Amino acid sequence: MTLTPKSRILAVDYGDARTGLAATDWTGVIAVPLPRIDSRDAAEVVRQVVALAAERDTQGLVVGMPLCVDGSAGDRAQRTARFVELLRAATPLPVATVDESHSTDEAHERLKQGGMKAKRRKDFADSVAALVILERFRRQLAGTG
Question: What distance in Å separates the CA atoms of residue 8 and residue 134, rounded to the nearest whole number?
């Protein structure tokens, strides 16, 4: 299946302890942050992502890839690449990656601009970062990013 900017997509901001999630609605138009997954077990995170993708009738997945400033794959990117391989083995859905550089900083800034206090921002930043990843991927699909 070829994904389009209006496909139903689930975005994943994979982390060691917290994994942020965001998704489009059933029309593929509106993107929203979802509750994060709190787990250090990659297999458990994969299981929950695959279950959520099925529940939401998702057409594709995108995972933020934490590349270094020079575009190379450091330690974090290598861990994320292993997670992506586990995800690809667990689902027939297409799984893409997109550069997630500064997505967490952008998430914190958005939450700050929205008036959220720093202590509360930490609870939502991972899923808002996944929303940033989803927006970047959709722009990439549209050829505008």
Answer: 11
123 Cβ contact list (under 8 Å, min separation 6): none
What is the C-alpha separation between 38 and 48, in angstroms, rounded?
A: 10
Condensed to tens digits (0 to 9), the pLDDT of residues 100-131 reads: 887 777 787 888 888 888 778 777 888 989 99
- Would strands 60-65 and 95-99 be described as parallel, antiparallel, or unpaired? parallel
CATH number for region 9-139: 3.30.420.140
pLDDT, tens only, 24-45: 998 889 999 999 999 999 999 9
Q: What is the token pair recorded at 80? A: 């994320």
Q: What are phi and psi of 65, to 5 degrees?
A: -105, 115
- The one-character DSSP state at 68 is -
